[in-house]
Amino acid sequence: MYSSHGTAPADWSEAALLAQLYDWEHDGFRDDIALYSALGRRTGGSVLELACGTGRILAGLVDDGFHVVGVDRSPDMLERARVRLAHARGAAELVLADMREGVLPGTHGLIVFGLDAFGLVHDPVQQTDTLDRVRAALQGDGVVVLDLVHVGSLADHPHGIPVLQRSGADEEIDANVTKWMVLELHPAAQLIEWRCFYDISWRPGGFRRVTETVEIRTFGRYEIELLLARAGLRVEAMYGDYELGPFQDDSRRMLVVARRHDG
Ligand SMILES: C[S@@+](CC[C@H](N)C(=O)[O-])C[C@H]1O[C@@H](n2cnc3c(N)ncnc32)[C@H](O)[C@@H]1O
From the CB of 221, is ligand 1 less than 6 Å away? Predict the structure, then answer.
């Protein structure tokens, strides 16, 4: 079992628990990895993932033989990525950093903003600056992928009330967990707010609620094209799902593949 500083899970910090609960929720989600693997094989070179979290995508790519580099600003998320990648076949490098600042490490064939990662950059100046630095870290024929939420798909979703998202055993922390989520849309600010409540019933006894609010910026397709163009990147393709279906009104995702103008 993964152990956070050698203490019992009931005594973990909120950040360590949230990192573990991220995996409880997402470990089974692998729908996006085949796409990144196929693009990475096409471009060659290494793969950089920004806001890599606990290494879910990186682990899939390392298994496929890629050299990967992951950047994240959360020590707890990165620590889990380190444990996950410790026995990987390929090479993996993890960097503790804010993706909105500083020079990005290395030069890569593929740069990935997986599962809403670019939406974590809210400020337009930081968005263009981040994309400038992405362009600088791409090899000539490299591509960047932005996996963005498509707000159109949330129109029918209940707003402002708790919705049961997942419930079940979490063997790693010896608990039963129920996750509730309240969705609020802020169209004028182009923000989606997810308030998440994790109710943890420890099997030996006891209860703890851990909460987290995540705010994700949404983008229109032409806005993202303009942002990329400003950074010297042109959109090569836009898809509505990981099977490369067309981007349309009811698409759940807006998957943007872009390359350097001069690439
Ligand atoms: C939703 S997770 C994404 C994880 C991963 N991309 C995946 O698909 O499983 C969000 C991650 O973004 C990280 N993050 C948020 N803002 C960041 C920033 N400015 N720079 C680096 N990492 C950031 C958080 O620490 C967290 O690990």
Answer: no
Say if ligand 1 is within 6 A of residue 15 CB.
Answer: no
Residues 6+ apart with CB under 8 A from 77: 19, 22, 52, 53, 54
In sequence order, the β-bridge partners of residue 69 are 48, 93
Q: What domains lie within the chain, and their CATH numbers? A: 9-150+220-260 (3.40.50.150), 153-217 (2.20.25.110)
Q: Tell me: the pLDDT tens digits for 32-68?
A: 999 999 999 999 999 999 999 999 999 999 988 999 9
What does pTM read for this prediction? 0.95
Round to the nearest angstrom and report the end-to-end CA distance of the chain.
Answer: 45
Query: Which atom of ligand 1 is nearest the CA belonging to 115?
Result: 8
d(CA 84, CA 101): 26
Ligand 1 center from residue 72 Cα (angstroms): 6
Ligand 1 mean position, distance from CA 147 (Å): 13
